[in-house]
Amino acid sequence: MYPFYGVVPSCLPAAEAKFRKVAIQRVEETENVEEATLTFLADLTLALVAASVFGALARALKITPIVGYLVAGMAIGPFTPGYHTSGGSLSGLSELGLILLLFSLGLGFSPQELRKVGIAPMLGNIVLMTAFGFVAWAVGAAFGLLHPITLALAFTLSSTAIGVALLQGFGLLNRQPGHATVALLVAQDLVAVVILVIVTAPAHSLSALGVAVPLFKAVLFVAVALVLGATVLHRIVAMFLRRSQAETLVAFSTAIALVAAWLGHLAGLSFEFGAFVAGAVTSEVAGSRMVQSIVAPFRELFIILFFVSIGTLIDIRSIAAHWQLIFTMSGVLILARFVGWYGLSRLVRQPAGTALALATTLVPLGEFNIVLA
């Protein structure tokens, strides 16, 4: 069976048996690796084909392609007939997409934009987020759900990606109301990072000390990152931006995000938190917009896979079994969020039409909510 069989002298039967056992194990390992590779390629191919088809269909229906990606995941998931992905094949790629997404959001973080908005809208932002969390908690508690506080944290934020796309569609992105709305979204992203630190602990073990310790770690992590960013990272990024080609910048930018993500994980925080901090620190370096534009196409690919992988978790039977909770919470939150954001927009003296557009922009939940969930 094996060409090397017989090399070991027959007078050493124990050594011969061990040699054969090792050879058989290596053959089995090779077969397992080949099988895992084929499964991964099949899952990836099917996921991208399904995402392309359903994403295009969603665009044709003039709705966000994210819905199409979720439906694509449902179509190839374990709860529908036909071929099923293994689940684990896409999880690593979706995690990479989240890391690059958080890195890109960090690149777009600008303290100057936050200062321009003023104190009143920022305070209103925090008040509304708290109110929306309370509404989600109340609905969850009324239906007897476990850990309604954790559920509430996942319903407090607006989607930056969807919000920016809607602002662009409304023609407000490059106007003052659009700038203010983007600043509010960025502030929510910053709050989300803090929440992300808190929810690294299991819901049943949350306590004052359990919240304080990871927050202290996060503050220390940010302080160290700022020092390294102002010294070492600033010089390295500036050098790469001046001397490197586009393909080298792709590898370099991704490496920064992944190294920071790993450091965040090793510090007991999360991959996403480390990536966001790295992006925020890099944003202070001239040319960070170039880095963001280079990373964006790859980030979008992995984000598509992320939403497809989320879609594979959706069970239509579960939705049918809990339709009252789902539709009640959705309806109450959509109404509360729209009324709240419209009221804040009018409070800061935006015209009625602009206030309607801004309220519509800030209603959708998105990527951070899924990360927190």
Summary, kept brief:
The chain has helices at 13-60, 65-76, 88-107, 111-117, 119-142, 148-153, 160-170, 176-198, 208-243, 246-266, 271-282, 288-311, 316-321, 323-347, 352-362, 367-372. With 373 residues, it is an all-alpha fold.
Descriptive key words:
single chain; 373 residues; mainly alpha; 16 helices; 78% helix; globular
Furnish the topology, listing elements before pairings:
Layout: H1 13-60, H2 65-76, H3 88-107, H4 111-117, H5 119-142, H6 148-153, H7 160-170, H8 176-198, H9 208-243, H10 246-266, H11 271-282, H12 288-311, H13 316-321, H14 323-347, H15 352-362, H16 367-372
Helix pairs in contact: 1-2, 1-12, 2-12, 3-10, 3-11, 3-12, 4-8, 5-14, 7-8, 7-15, 8-15, 9-11, 10-11, 14-15
| Shape label | globular
Number of strands: 0
Q: List unreliable stretches of 5+ residues.
A: none
- The H/E string reads HHHHHHHHHHHHHHHH
**Distance from first to last alpha carbon:** 52 Å
Please, how many helices?
16
